[in-house]
Write a structure and sequence with these properties.
28% of the residues lie in helices and 22% in strands. It is an alpha/beta fold. The protein has a single domain, classed as NagB/RpiA/CoA transferase-like (Rossmann fold, 3-Layer(aba) Sandwich). The longest helix is centred in the N-terminal third of the chain and has 20 residues. It is globular and about 40 Å long. Its cofactor is Mg(2+).
Amino acid sequence: MDEIHEKKSAIRNDMAKMISDLSAEQLEVKLRRIEEQLFEFANFMEAKIPLLYMSQGSEVATESIIQRSFTHNKIIVLPAFNKEKYTMTLMKVDDFDTDLTTGPRGVAEPNPKKCKKVPIDKVDIAIIPGLAFDEKGGRIGSGLGYYDRLIPKLSVTTRKVSLALEEQVISQVPMEPHDKYVDIIITDERVIYKI
């Protein structure tokens, strides 16, 4: 297990370096392409209630995607994190500017005083963050397992989709028994359906 943890840690570091080596302009072009691919993706456009995420670190930035989703009359669901239990509560966000607060991870998340809980079975499509992926749908996340616990609770009909720079797709992600796969990865160059 320690060997897998070391490999994952090295991959996380490689991804952070790769992203930091891109110029702001290069990164912006890639993020815009990913956003366009997502908004051309039928499963996403047909979904009324998408689960999205507020990005951190080397994850694909999502603020523009969330803002644009509001203009498509989607019911936006974002996670609120519980650091003690390593769980998250899914909450409906009505106003991007007033419904968010800084959460325990230092990232904006729904303010429980303003946002209502959403039952997990109401989510039509789940956009799952990650730092590295392979074409089998393997993913490396932050290492805390929040999404590995969430994915099995999602309905089997809920598409699990990740966004990635093409450079974040590697030949093979080292997977452990508790690690969960995503169905589809949308990059700045293609849409990958898990093999």
